[in-house]
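Hi P.,

Sorry for the delay on this. The queue was packed all week, but I finally got your sequence through. Input first:
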Amino acid sequence: MTSAVTITVTSSDGKNTTQRTSLLKSGARGILSRKSLAGLSLPDDEVVSDYRLQYVYNERTKKVTVEPLNSAFGAYRKIESGYVAPGAGANSFILGDTLFTLVEDSGCFSLTYVKIGEECGMSTMKLDKKLTYMVGRAPSARAQQGLIRISGDPDISRNHCWLWYKEELGQWLVADNSSSNGVYVRLNTRYTVRWDELIRIGKRVNVYFSMDDY
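Then the structure:
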């Protein structure tokens, strides 16, 4: 049995989705960029840098690892289940078309958020480590919950995700709440992807790796 690994880049303008696919050879490594890559290049996107994501396919382990390169936007993986820390150092995650960043200052935490690609309009709110927050367009509250209401982004669900502080870990955690478009958390180091796992590298650009046996 032979395995074939493909890399697929998808982009959307909000109405239509296009995709570009390329077959990876054994031991393949490369950099996803707006410049050509064996016939596969990134589409135009206002936040995609010339060089965005490095990848390596290991034939022996049948695994693909990716590593974000220096860029303002970075790369984000989609949470499929459970909860994760948004990432030591960057502490950023994406809901819809909105970028969220956790900021610590002298033991106090705040959350900033802004539409991706916009340089103005950033909002900031202080966080209470004792509360569990529901983030969404029209979040509902229960006891011990805080509400973070985000307007102007139709791709964010009414009750999109949970956000809370885990004292034992010293970190904020985020979990998807069965939202329509999911939660993406920033990659800060080399990461082994799961097959067909979405990696977001632009406002409307995703990449994923697939393996097929034949």
